[in-house]
Predict the structure of Ferrochelatase.
Amino acid sequence: MTLPEHAPASQPQSPARKIGVLIANLGTPDSPDYWPMRRYLSEFLSDKRVIDYPAWKWQPLLQTVILTKRPFTSGANYRLIWNNEANESPLMTITKQQVAALRERTAALWGDRVMVDFCMRYGNPSTPDVVERMVKAGCDRILFFPLYPQYAGATTATANDQFFRALMGQKAQPAARTVPPYFDRPDYIAALAASVERALGGRQPRKLVASYHGMPRRYFEEGDPYFLQCTETSRLLRERLGWDEDVIDTTFQSVFGTEEWLRPYTVEHVAELAQRGITEIAVISPAFSADCIETLEEIQGEIREAFIHAGGKEFTYIPCLNAEPDHIDVLTAVIGENLGGWV
Ligand SMILES: C=CC1=C(C)c2cc3[nH]c(cc4nc(cc5[nH]c(cc1n2)c(C)c5CCC(=O)O)C(CCC(=O)O)=C4C)c(C)c3C=C
Ligand SMILES: [Fe+2]
Ligand SMILES: [Fe+2]
């Protein structure tokens, strides 16, 4: 290609046009030590989509009280589950496995025209860095896929916000699409049901607790559809399993701060179940596409202990869909549908 005289020497030779599929998850600290934990939590908890108090009110409390103590307590929890071999959190390891599996599938379907990569909303690899890499590799179209089955302002919307902010920095801005929530897709529900059957060997438990990450109740009252999408996932899962209405309970975990969050709280609910004589339960966590600190430490630690302490006997944790082949099938199908007209 002949460049016009005024083109800078560094002008890129237009590389082959590609389509980027950018998988996004929440993020995770680079290490469980104090400063990486503090940096990560500060970025996360300064996000207005997560904590919506005015900065003048929230930042002094966050930067002094909360970020003095929480990096130590959260760091200790991350240490319990850390993948020491790869020196990263389980969320990072599983996200990499999901992306590796998706690359195989997309390569088989669309060859090297489609490139798959991942970014995190907080921490590394950052959304702007990966968008930049995709543009440099020749992507003139990007499909952005926040890996949350249920929409929440604090997860899907803030990931999308960050993606669009990253695009603001691009001179040659690619065309962009975002993937909608998939909480009610029959193949996602079928993959959840299969994970229940795998973990329980096909038997029906006395109670299956579907524990979703919580959020302040006020966000729901102000219009966030997360609660409704979670209850719909539970209902469809129960129907798919063919179980009676009282077998699955929907609960919410990970309460943070002093406001009322979505109820019932998982930790209280499992203790009540044990006290009512329901001493064998299974717990699934459909809002997480990958096992993370909230499932590996909170559910399998704190929540399990609350159940046993209240008289519970058998607590079965059903792992997230992670890089299971049927989960990768679902994600590939979602990608294929959302690439309509591009491939
Ligand atoms: C799956 C959906 C999620 C929603 C909804 C959500 C809302 C939300 N979260 C916080 C505060 C914290 N969340 C933390 C961890 C965390 N949260 C999600 C997902 C959702 N959050 C994931 C996948 C993770 C795990 C990340 C990992 O590295 O494994 C934490 C940090 C953990 C800790 O310090 O112990 C906090 C804090 C709020 C306030 C909120 C709703 C507005
Ligand atoms: Fe969270
Ligand atoms: Fe937690």
Q: What stands out?
A: The chain has two domains: 18-181+325-338, 186-317. The mean pLDDT is 96. The first strand starts at residue 18 and ends at 27.
